[in-house]
C-alpha cells in the first residue's frame, strides 16, 4: 500500500457559509438527514461529501437517483446506507455487507446478537498446498428479529463476487434459517455461508482439516 489517505471534501470555498449550510469543521463534510437534506431545507447533498456516510461511487449514484425521485417523482424511497456491499481488492480480497460486528453491538447490544464464523480452504488452494486456515467468513445475526442477517463478511478469493450475490439476499431479509436451508455449490468459497454452525460465543475451534 503506497497511499491510503482518503478523500478531501472540498466544501469550504463554494459559498455554503453564505447560505448558512453547516459543515463538519473537522473534515469539511456535510451533515444531512436520512433524506440527504442539509440544515437549510432547500439544499441537499449526496455522495462523498456526506458526513458519516460511505465514500463509494455506486452509493452516490443510488442516492442521487432516489433523491430525484423523491423531489420530482412522488417517491418516498430513501437510500439504504447500511446494507451496502463493498470489497477491498487486496491480493486476498475482503468483502462485507451490513454492520461490522463492533457497530452491530453498539446498535443492538451484544446479548441480542449471534455471530457465526468459519475458516475455509478454497479448492484452488489445495493443489499448491496453501494454508487451509487463511480464508475467513462471518455472519452477524439479530436474535430479536428471527436471526436476520445484519452483517456478512468474507476474506478470500473472489470476495467481491460472493458479497454482491449475498447483498441482494440481505436486502430481502435473509435469515440464518434460510442460509441453512440453501444448498451450497460444492466446492465454492460461497458455500461456507450455507454450512456455518459454530458460534463465536461458543469458543469452539473453527480451523478446517480439508476443502
UniProtKB/TrEMBL annotation:
Cofactor(s) of this protein: FAD
One GO term describing the cellular component: cytosol
Keywords assigned: Disulfide bond, FAD, Flavoprotein, NADP, Oxidoreductase, Redox-active center
Entries under InterPro entries matching the protein: FAD/NAD-bd_sf, FAD/NAD-binding_dom, FAD/NAD-linked_Rdtase_dimer_sf, GSHR/TRXR-like, Pyr_nucl-diS_OxRdtase_dimer
Gene Ontology MF terms in the entry: flavin adenine dinucleotide binding; glutathione-disulfide reductase (NADPH) activity
Residue intervals of the FAD/NAD(P)-binding domain: 1-64
Residue ranges of every copy of the Pyridine nucleotide-disulphide oxidoreductase dimerisation domain listed in the record: 84-196
Keyword DNA-binding assigned: no
GO biological process: cell redox homeostasis; cellular response to oxidative stress; glutathione metabolic process
Gene3D superfamilies to which the protein is assigned, alphabetical: 3.30.390.30, FAD/NAD(P)-binding domain
Pfam family, one: Pyr_redox_dim
Family as reported in the entry's similarity comment: Belongs to the class-I pyridine nucleotide-disulfide oxidoreductase family.
Protein name: TRXR3 reductase
The encoding gene: Txnrd3
Amino acid at each position: 500500500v503506497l497511499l491510503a489517505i482518503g478523500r478531501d471534501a472540498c466544501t469550504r470555498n463554494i459559498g455554503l457559509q453564505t447560505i448558512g449550510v453547516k459543515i463538519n469543521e473537522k473534515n469539511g463534510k456535510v451533515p444531512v438527514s436520512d433524506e440527504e437534506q442539509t440544515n437549510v431545507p432547500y439544499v441537499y447533498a449526496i455522495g462523498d461529501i456526506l458526513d458519516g456516510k460511505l465514500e463509494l461511487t455506486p452509493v452516490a449514484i443510488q442516492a442521487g437517483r432516489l433523491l430525484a425521485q423523491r423531489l420530482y417523482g412522488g417517491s418516498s424511497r430513501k437510500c439504504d446506507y447500511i446494507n451496502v456491499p463493498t470489497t477491498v481488492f487486496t491480493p486476498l480480497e475482503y468483502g462485507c455487507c451490513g454492520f461490522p460486528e463492533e457497530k452491530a453491538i453498539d446498535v443492538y447490544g451484544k446479548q441480542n446478537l449471534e455471530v457465526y464464523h468459519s475458516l475455509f480452504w478454497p479448492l484452488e488452494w489445495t493443489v499448491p498446498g496453501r494454508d487451509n486456515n487463511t480464508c475467513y467468513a462471518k455472519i452477524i445475526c439479530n436474535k430479536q428479529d428471527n436471526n436476520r442477517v445484519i452483517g456478512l463478511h468474507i476474506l478470500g478469493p473472489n470476495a467481491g463476487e460472493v458479497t454482491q450475490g449475498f447483498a441482494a439476499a440481505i436486502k430481502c431479509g435473509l435469515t440464518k434459517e434460510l442460509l441453512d436451508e440453501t444448498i451450497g455449490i460444492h466446492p465454492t468459497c460461497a458455500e461456507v455461508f450455507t454450512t456455518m454452525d459454530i458460534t463465536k460465543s461458543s469458543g469452539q475451534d473453527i480451523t478446517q482439516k480439508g476443502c
